[in-house]
Amino acid sequence: MKKYKRLIIxxxxxxIGSLLALYGRMLLxxxxxxxxxxxxxxxxxxxxxxTSVKQQGASNTCWSYTGNSFLESEMIxxxxxxxxISQVYTARQAYVEKAHNxxxxxxxxxxxxxxxxxxxxxxxxxxxxxxxxxxAGLRGNQTYNDFKKMTPMLNTxxxxxxxxxxxxxxxxxxxxxxxxxxxxxxxxxxxFKGKTYTARxxxxxxxxxxxxxxxxxxxxxxxxxxxxxxxLVPDNWSFDHFYNVPMQDLTRIIDRALRLxxxxxxxxxxxxxxxxxxxxxxxxxxxxxxxxxxxxxxxxFVKPKPEKKITAEERQRAFDNWGxxxxxxxxxxxxxxxxxxxxxxxxxxxxxxANEFKGYMYVTKEYVNFKTITLLLxxxxxxxxxxxxxxxx
Length: 393
Description:
- The protein is an alpha+beta fold.
- About 40% of the residues lie in helices and about 15% in strands.
- The protein has 12 helices and 13 strands.
- Strand 10 and strand 11 form a beta hairpin.
């Protein structure tokens, strides 16, 4: 009996020791990754109307969240009461359109969850829109969207399909049924504030925007300026056109829009070392991050730092060598100044509110010059000179 008691005591000592060691490592890691308190002080210059920050969950649908946030702000600008538009409805209809292109190109198209901002307008034009209250795309006990199982399954369906000859005639029905299984069936009609709507009538009567009144811009040096061109990035699966403008026009377009009360939808690269979601800051460090000391890296986002001036050639080089990639969309809703008077764009993200500024980012103009992929905004936000150049082409 004593032998067994001794063995039990030894086991308990080992277990307690292991738990204490684990707790110690947890504390060490917590301290290791604890953020230094931010010293940024921002003052609003322009802060336009927008709806609340959303969480896109485990879905690469930032383009839909941003595009619909932009439309919600357009409702505010037009004097309408904003309503949260179903981001998942927009996404699933775009996935059907993308599937058609995949089949027509015999599988020669990158399939995934990504998209561009114009996809929101294209879906709005063809299918309409639905309030999130009528279609959230959540099943069972889900509280946020999770496409990790759905996307590989849909892609496998399409890859098998394009290998078959002749093409299965009812493939789209099967594809939509698979979407239904993961996201739920789309209601043909739904009630909203005491009235019954379809996706078409809701888009026309409640949201009330004209998708043909919005313009898209990009900036590359290998295409003529002020003319439309097809931007070759994977998420432009619909091969839509963008007006090409010089790099310096990007911030001019945004600044004028904000001054006139128009928000701007923005796609960009957020894989940069000068982008910090936890701190809510994005800038272009004057000193290369790889040359910084560990202390400099730790304090990169604590307070305003010097920035590198970007040229159009550097911007194009980063785009061509995949240093700049089309990986995120956000909504520019304002302008602010830091404690030294430097201007930043106030940007609404769709990753929830778990950062320094409760879901918003402060982004420098140099970062926008360097890392912008595309802009989307209302045509009335353009100045007369730029509008004239575009019309003359």
